[in-house]
Amino acid sequence: MPEHDTYQRLITLFDTTGTPYRLIDHAPEGSTESVCALRGHPTSEAAKCIVLRVKTDKKTTRHVLAVVPGDRRVDLDAVRTLFDARYVGFSDAATAERLAHAVPGTVLPFAFDPDLELVADPAVIARPQLYFNAARLDRSAVISGEDYARLAVPRVAPIAETVT
Question: Which pTM does this prediction carry?
Answer without folding.
Answer: 0.94
